[in-house]
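Worked Example 4.2. Consider the chain below.
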Amino acid sequence: MAASALVTGYYFVLPDKLFKDPYSTVLNDRNGNLLSASIAGDGQWRFPFSMEVPQKFQEALVLAEDKRFYRHPGVDLLSLGRAAQQNWKAGKVVSGGSTLSMQVIRLARKNQRRSISEKLVEVVLATRLEFRYSKKEILALYAAHAPFGGNVVGLEAACWRFFGRTVSDLSWSEAAMLAVLPNNPSLIHLNKNRIKLKLKRDRLLERLAQAGKMDQLELHLAQAEPVPETLLTLPRLAPHLLTRAIREGKGENKVITTIDLGLQQRVTQIINDHHQQLKANQIFNAAAIILEIKTGNVLAYVGNTASGSKNNEDVDVVMAPRSTGSILKPFLYAAMLQEGKMLPHTLWPDVPTFINGYSPENFSKEFDGAVPASAGLIRSLNIPAVYELREYRYEKFYDKLKTIGLTTLKQPADHYGLTLVLGGAEGTLWDITGAFASMARTLNNYFELPGKNRYSKSDFHPPRYQQTEDDKNKIIEESSWLNAASVYLTFDALKEVYRPGENTGWRNFSSTKKIAWKTGTSFGFRDGWAVGVNPEYAIGVWVGNADGEGRPGLTGTETAAPILFDLFSVLPASGWFQMPVSEMEKIEVCQKSGHRATDLCEERTQEWVPKAGLETLPCPYHKKVFLSADKKFRVHALCESLTKMTEATWFVLPPIQEFYFKQKTFGYRPLPPLRKDCENPNSVASMDLIYPKINSKVLVPRELDGTTGNTLFEATHRNPAATIFWHLDGKFLAATRKTHKLALNPTAGTHTLTVVDDAGESISRSFSVISTIK
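Applying the procedure from the previous section yields the following structure tokens:
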């Protein structure tokens, strides 16, 4: 019974978990290179346990500490006897005779006060240790928990702190130095004991040479290596990703990421180089990620700038919800194409607009009357996008954005309304870049499967910063959230690098690298976005101030796009996306309207469109008209004989669109006017200007506080529901409904006031501001 109890006690005497110390969180790149690490909870640099112990360190350690390590059962009786004899002769403890197994036990027991009883405990536990673990595992336990001076614990942390590299790269000299450090505390102060440490290391190197581990040349070279002068700082690449990994429950582990160390370093440098220029305009923060299209793996992750100026640089902007500006417009463009609600170049209104009290404006504050959908996307015009969203319905677009990966739409769809496509919602660089990458992945994968079913909705997934196995059980379907044809045509539009209307050097950017790219700018110049894709990579860039402060000139084109193209320049060249012809049809399209051509369309072109585009309406803008013999006037059967009328086709825009379109479009021909005898003699003007009258002279008053006052201009309209659009000297000012009054403060001189109603009727009136009352 006593023997049984003794055996049972011996079996359970060793704790299940030897070491309960907290560990550092270590972030490695895809090849095992160190990116960043956090200090452990107890203030020590202690990397997570690893079985990787380099052979050179094993050889040096065993020779220095326990030369019969592989032959004893945890206790070396010869060493213990020799140590006892040495201690008796010296009259004090000069040698412990501990094996490496006993040293592991002592480390686990937190270096208890040395005594005979403690030594007996170590002996018992060391033998039990040998039953549970292999010799290789015992060496790994020692290497992971041995002290190497200061707050450096474990071989891996020591390699980085002393030499700035991984354990696998240790030289004989470095391995020998680290082998003699743990049991020689007086040697850990590099500045004080470098000579003593070198002598100790060199003696061990000589023993290694005598044991046949190296030849004489290797010995001389190893002894010639200097001892480090000071501890090194650990790398701080991807610090925001490290913090994120800890926040997501990966703390105290070694996290192997998909990051490429070399690319991460280059991206960090590019971000910081641009930061030096941006901070001159008090723009302090920027972020970027690079994704591999095929897998969605993150190749580079720069969460913020790192200049040391303490301008909210700890904020991980990659994951911070920010106003999206125009960066979501490509998703709407693709969705409209997929559902056959437009063709790539369908005309959309670009006029002063009021929809249920909402009045969107273009960035330029100007209007083109009507623009092709593709041009509206390239130029990032807001008003055409709102008309598209109204046609598509914002509730559907809200659901679409969620399905393709936006996780920040926390409010119901009605909360955002039509502003959803103009920055009314928030998004993260992570989600948005991931959605662009998912679109590209869907288009690439479309060609991998033959037949009818070519899609997997699982191709739309968030980016990944840790390697995962490919999903071998993909559900293959006939369609996806966005199909290949709509994605291809969207990218085809976005690859146009010439951006009309943007005063920037990027309009002349030329490169052999084709890139589909889009910028975005939030209201108040708070966020600058740029996202670009090709078949291999997706890059997302954000620029701004993490605290939300806006700055003049903080636009996606001026701040984020230059970074985007610098990042693409360091990536390998890529081809272009393959056209999914089997999902498209080549049809005749009216060149002027972008709609399906009719017999009335004089200028037509052949164009590839999604098959759903066959359901779109034919061109509504080309009409048949009848002209007088000289073709100067429109006539009809009530005022002209049929034999004298000339039939013609005419491209006719709605009146309000035509008013702006003809100002911007050279060669646009308005409809000829009705001949006077063909007009209705009872017709009267729908509106009039009450003030100012023709050639009025206006005085602008001053207020009681001395500031310049306003002059009230007024118009009237027969239709109480009509909207009147006010322009001064050709510049749009505002729109009024019901009560048509506008307070203005024009400068001295001659001006022209123009009012236009929503039917296209207009009145222009000149007036003079002769002075202001002083």
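Residues 753 and 765 are 5 Å apart (CA to CA). DSSP finds 21 helices and 26 strands in the chain. Compare this with Example 4.1 before moving on.
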